[in-house]
Design goal:
With 649 residues, the chain is an alpha/beta fold. It has 28 helices and eleven strands. A hairpin with a 5-residue loop joins strand 7 and strand 8.
Length: 649
């Protein structure tokens, strides 16, 4: 039995005058659709739909939309619209007070319960009906789209849609815009007559200046859900919003305007004057912002390239710390991207991540985990709680990750030179994944991944024949960034690693034309101030500048910060002397930029360099910044260097 069988299902609008009230049976509408009968008030609706179609072709921002088929409704159903609640005869209809309606609606947990509840009512306001559609959209839509497409075949649902389509001009602003928003979320085809009617009516009211700030906000949010919203309409919304006092805008209105400006700026519009005012107002309201609004505004500031809004960005980043446990995956990604874009790094934010990631690792989206690892990697933050949790997460979920996500999980371990307690299982799982999915990796992604492994002495010898093959090298060259100096340095370091550390490797070698003679290490460049202090101390110790050389290029890819040569009896030789050199000492002057942030843990690039210099015959002496920074004069530095370089004399 149909839920609305043999009943009159009425809507009324509290804002529409009674004179606009019209009774129209659903059967007459169906006849009109099939060309059999034409209702009296259809011409204005048809005109609006045609105008809307001429103005723009809307499509959804999401991947899919659905066609809403209306024709299969029972033709004997009667659907009425009452123009004014004061003229609605309660005695002849099942009617419920709006407050009680929404209290009952909010207690329902499924769309089936909501539609059954609606079928028990014969009269409701358009605000109530649109509220029901919004509740249904909240329950029925997730990141993958509409959960239950059969919902669209429900007769109560389709009766509501018919009412909104053909009586859009009689709706209140709230009913119209809430319905539009809900139907967009439900992926109803934006080019359907239903959607075009609602969009057209909304734009007409916008043009007539009939929408309040709250309604402008709702319309703006709805249009932003569409793939190609009309920039002219969005600009109209912003212009109407500016007629009021910006300082009085609610956080929701602020976020909506930021989002609209994102779209219009992409079209070449310039709004910097408005942005400056908006940024200033937002700064004063940061403490009131919800996690969602913090994330949305930070994302807008990135898109709008607001690099001069330093105070606002800093305030938002500080405020985001308390929201870390409450961010959705998407929101946290936005926040992390803002931290990266604006160069923000806060210890308490890292600590919040260290509490959040380990307990959420098995429920976090892999893309969110990837962004967390990117943040740690680029900020050189070696957080053992995060890295250990990510390692465990990889072991349990690697088979479900994309190749880019696999690389994003693993590369930071090599970059920051860290092996977690579960290293054996972690790299065992990685090897299994590589064996089964090697051909799915993009060339540069695979090279970055394998290079990061050798930084921490995990040798991918089974996969190096592929890396060194001419075919793979051609693929590297064909894809951006091609075979630039950094890529060729990675190849050279891989080859040097198997030569020095894997004598059992018998696969193909890297052709000499793909090898570089010096390693570019901008991240590990010399700390000029520290280097100068060390050279001054050495001069005091050795008395003459000829006894040491600085920034010495070796035949083996690496550059030595300071080299000291000794003869067979341990005496220091002039740096330029080539004969009778029995020992070479490589001083590695390691400033803070060669270590993980707030840590004494060397970065992977510097660790492998010092390891390889030892294998090449150098005596490596590390001069870390944290050992020398407290030495206050040249004499103390000279004594320190004496003990480090010549511990037995």
């Amino acid at each position: 039995m149909a839920l609305i069988s043999r009943k009159s299902f009425q809507l009324y609008s509290s804002s529409a005058p009674a004179s606009r009230s019209a009774l129209m049976t659903l059967s007459r509408r169906l006849n009109f659709i099939s060309g059999q009968h034409k209702p009296q008030n259809c011409s204005s609706v048809a005109k609006r739909m045609m105008c809307a179609k001429d103005k723009s072709q809307y499509t959804f921002r999401r991947n899919k939309h659905v066609q809403l088929q209306m024709q299969s409704l029972s033709a004997n159903e009667t659907v009425h619209l009452c123009g004014d609640m004061r003229n609605c005869t309660k005695s002849n209809n099942v009617w419920m007070d709006e407050q009680l309606f929404f209290k009952r609606l909010n207690s329902l947990c499924t769309s089936k319960e909501i539609l059954y509840f609606l079928s028990s009512l014969e009269v409701m306001s358009d605000t109530m009906a649109s509220g029901a559609l919004q509740k249904i959209s909240e329950l029925e839509v997730d990141d993958n789209g509409l959960k239950n497409p059969a919902l669209l075949e429900n007769e109560v649902f389709r009766a509501l849609c018919f009412q909104f389509e053909f009586e859009s001009s009689n709706l209140s602003n709230t009913g119209l815009l809430n319905a539009l928003q809900a139907l967009i979320r439900l992926r109803i085809d934006p080019q359907s007559t239903l959607m075009m009617s609602l969009l057209s009516e909304s734009e007409e009211r916008l043009g007539r200046g009939q929408l309040t700030a709250e309604h402008l906000c709702a319309l703006g949010e709805s249009l932003l859900e569409l793939e190609s919203p009309s920039c002219a309409t969005l600009e109209q919304i912003v212009n109407h919003m500016q007629e009021g006092d910006i300082k009085s805008w609610s956080p929701r209105e602020v976020v909506m305007v930021y989002n609209i400006l994102e779209v219009t700026v992409r079209e070449g519009k310039q709004w910097q004057s408005l942005l400056n005012r908006l940024n200033s107002v937002t700064l004063g309201a940061v403490s009131q912002l919800s996690p969602n609004f913090v994330s949305e505004i930070l994302n807008s500031l990135v898109v709008l390239r607001q690099t001069r809004a330093v105070l606002l960005v800093t305030a938002l980043c500080k405020h985001s710390v308390q929201h870390v446990p409450h961010f959705t995956d998407h929101e946290l990604v936005n926040v992390l991207e803002a931290f990266l874009y604006f160069g923000q790094k806060m210890q308490n934010f890292t600590e919040a991540l260290e509490r959040h990631v380990p307990r959420s690792i098995h429920t976090m989206h892999p893309q969110t985990v990837s962004k967390v690892m990117q943040y740690c990697c680029e900020k050189t933050i070696l957080s053992k709680p995060i890295f250990d949790a990510v390692a465990e997460g990889f072991i349990s979920s690697a088979d479900r990750l994309t190749t880019d996500q696999i690389a994003a999980y693993i590369i930071p371990f090599g970059t920051l030179n860290y092996l977690p307690p579960s290293a054996s299982s972690l790299f065992g799982k990685l090897e299994i994944v590589l064996h089964t999915r090697l051909r799915h990796f993009q060339p540069h992604t695979l090279l970055n991944l394998l290079h990061s492994c050798v930084l921490i002495q995990r040798y991918p010898t089974n996969f190096l024949p592929k890396i060194f093959s001419p075919y793979f090298l051609q693929k590297l060259q064909a894809q951006p960034p091609g075979l630039n100096r950094v890529v060729m340095s990675q190849l050279t370091q891989l080859f040097l690693t198997v030569t020095l550390e894997c004598p059992f490797y018998e696969g193909p070698k890297l052709l000499s034309k793909y090898q570089v003679k010096a390693c570019p290490t901008p991240q590990s460049s010399l700390d000029v101030h520290l280097f100068k202090r060390v050279k001054t101390g050495l001069l005091d110790l050795l008395k003459k500048r000829i006894y040491f050389a600085s920034e010495v290029s070796t035949p083996y890819f690496y550059v030595v910060d300071i080299e000291i040569k000794l003869d067979g009896e341990g005496f220091v030789l002039p740096a330029a002397q080539l004969e009778e050199v029995h020992r070479r000492i490589a001083l590695c002057v390691d400033g803070q930029n060669r270590f993980c942030a707030h840590s004494h843990n060397l970065l992977g690039e510097e660790a492998i360099k010092q390891r390889h210099l030892q294998l090449l015959g150098y005596e490596v002496v590390q001069i870390p910044f944290f050992e020398i920074e407290s030495l206050q004069n040249t004499r103390k530095i000279a004594d320190y260097l004496h003990k480090k370089i010549f511990p037995c004399t």
